[in-house]
Amino acid sequence: MPKYIFITGGVVSSLGKGIASASIGKMLEAKGLRVTMQKLDPYINVDPGTMNPYQHGEVYVTDDGAETDLDLGHYQRFTNTPLGKVNNVTTGQVYYTVISKERRGDYLGGTVQVVPHITDEIKERIRNVSKGKRPDVVISEIGGTVGDIESLPFLEAVRQFRHEVGKENAIFVHLTLIPYIKAAGELKSKPTQHSVGRLREIGIQPDILLCRTEKRIPKEVRDKIALFCNIDPEAVIEARDVRTIYEVPLMFKDQGLDKVICDFLGLEYRAGSLLEWKREVVDRTLKPAKRVKIAVVGKYIDLQDAYKSIYEALKHGGLAHHTDVVIKRYNAERMQRGNIARLLNKVDGILVPGGFGNRGIEGKIRVIQYARENKIPFLGICLGMQCAVIEFARSVAELKNANSTEFNKKTAHPVISLLEEQQDIKNLGGTMRLGAYDCRLKKGTHSFRAYRAEEISERHRHRYEFNYKYRETLEKHGLMVAGIHQSSTGPLVEIIELDGKLHPWFVAGQFHPEFKSKPDKPHPLFRDFVGNALRFKRSEHGDNGENGDQPESSDFPSVEEIIHASSED
Ligand code: GLN
Fold first, then answer.
1. Which of 74, 243, 308, 376: disulfide with 371, CB 3.0–4.6 Å?
2. pLDDT one-digit tens code per residue, 202-228
3. Sorting pLDDT into bands at 50, 70 and 90, what band is 86?
């Protein structure tokens, strides 16, 4: 039987529970333990696939086609946990199962209740996550903040779970906030005491506290927290703000959190090393030799989390070149007008991410035209690829008013159209083309050079695709189909590129490469995109990226800039 770690959060949301959980996973993996991670989300949506990014942030997609919480992205970037449908449980899924069973008559004669039916189903799903995987440790993160009404069934379920498996097999870790009150010049432990009190009321005594704080927590404050929250002093861990999220596992390990966890769970304490992670990821992030500026042009740019995996993958791409990637986020809608050359002045690469709906489309297309004509390295992702095809069709192949049928059903040139299998679908939840599909790359393309393989597999989340009828016309004008998936209904275009005569590095994929990138294993397309941005910078500004714009330790980590206005505003 695996050991279980349940992670809860208190006081306020956005303390970084996902990163803390992933960091614990990383630290344990460094000791040679096999880790499986799971997120329990208390909302009633079956999955976040139907939520607006403003509600939820990015939707992370797994190989088996689950639309999941973005915390699974953190798990993937920090650890080697297997990820699929079973790794994200929501209240919606739990109720769906219980209600279906009730209708089938599985509970005939009984009243169906939150306790025991809903809590049993939650426990079943916690057990299920390790089926067929034999992990040493399962880390289950409970979404929301202690005190929320909707978290209660989850907390009751994990309380029972621990009671059933025994204290030596399951522990509770609580992430909390120690605010610094400037006027008093003091760190305050009271909110933490209240939050732990709240947990105790429902029968959970945390074993470990992770204390988010801006300042060092002095020993007396730490001892006070330990005393009033009934926790061993060495299990009160400081979670200070760090310069890069990838430093968190090191910070935890430095305080002996790995030993504390192993002791609680009776795991043999094996010395593990995070040295490589420190050298290859943290040190490279903190001491870059070069810097490039990449524009990300999307609809949800003012929300940090909407393109989370893309921002991270860009940073990873930079690490491969010892380069700091400064991300400039542009609001696509505002790019429809204004002096585009001035707005995009000094960017070394342009990325257009995925998205849905009409808003901002023409701005994206205008930016892509600028990238194409000015030979600025370009990476298009999903909708970004579709927009690149539309732009090329309109401006180069002279297919007037070419469009996607998503934006104009009656367009004369539907270069992007609905996938055949999508045509009769009425329900919108979980019905896109989802998950991993293989793709065959054409030799001699940028993509082939990046992946160094002919067969690849990438994850998808879309309904529309490249209309194959236009392949010949577009190819005649210099657009190249670089990757194809052979489906039962025919070939699907997965990657397009521009011929080397037209542009030095213009690549766009129908899939989401960002979901597979890791800081210590940057995705090949992001790596080469950043590499070409560096080359562009060198040729444009005559520097090799190592002069002039070199980062200084004082302006690190680079801040992301958000550009809302067009130059006329
Ligand atoms: N809206 C487009 C489609 O459904 C693109 C989706 C995406 O970018 N994820 O095909």
1. 376
2. 999 999 999 999 999 999 999 999 999
3. very high
Q: What's the mean pLDDT when you consider all of the chain? A: 92
Which residue, by CA, sits nearest to atom 5 of ligand 1?
383
Among 56, 460, 512, 523, the active-site one is: 512
Higher pLDDT, 305 or 92: 92
Distance, CA 320 to ligand 1 centroid (Å)? 29
> Three-state SS for 147?
coil
**213 membership: H or E segment, kind and range:** strand 208-213
Active site residue 382: yes
If you measure from the C-alpha of residue 353 to the centroid of ligand 1, how many angstroms do you get, rounded to a whole number? 10
pTM for this prediction? 0.93
- How far apart CA 303 and CA 306 sit, in angstroms, is 6
Q: What is the fold of 288-417+466-482+495-536?
A: Rossmann fold (3.40.50)
The domain 3-280 is placed in CATH, from the list 3.30.559.10, 2.40.50.140, 3.40.220.10, 3.40.50.300, at: 3.40.50.300
Contact 34, 137 (CB under 8 A): yes
Place of tokens 């799971």: 38
For 463-485, write each residue's pLDDT tens digit: 999 999 999 999 999 999 999 99
* Ligand 1 pocket, residue 462 CB under 6 Å: yes
- pLDDT digits over 377-413, tens only? 999 999 999 999 999 999 999 999 999 999 999 999 9
Three-state DSSP class for 323?
A: strand
Q: What is the largest CA-CA distance in the chain?
A: 80
Q: Is 241 annotated as a binding residue?
A: yes
355 lines ligand 1 (CB under 6 A): yes
What is the Å distance from ligand 1's center to 53 Cα?
14
Ligand 1 pocket test target in 419, 464, 493 with most atoms within 8 Å of CB:
464
- Ligand 1 centroid, distance to 459 Cα (angstroms): 13
461 lines ligand 1 (CB under 6 A): yes
Euclidean distance between CA atoms 317 and 543, whole angstroms: 20
Instruction: Decide if pLDDT at 551 tops 80.
Output: no
Task: Give which of 466, 464, 490 is closest to 480, Cα–Cα.
Answer: 466
Mutate to test the pocket of ligand 1, among 61, 297, 356 (most ligand atoms within 8 A of CB): 356
CATH 3.40.50.300: which residues of the chain?
3-280
Say yes or no to pLDDT of 243 above 70.
yes
Report CA(356)–ligand 1 centroid distance (Å): 5
Q: Tell me the mean pLDDT in the region 430-434.
A: 88
546 is catalytic: no
483: nearest Cα among 503, 461, 510: 510
463 C-beta closer than 6 A to ligand 1: yes
Active site residue 373: no
Amino acid sitting at position 401: N
Give CA angle at 215 (210, 218), nearest 5°: 75
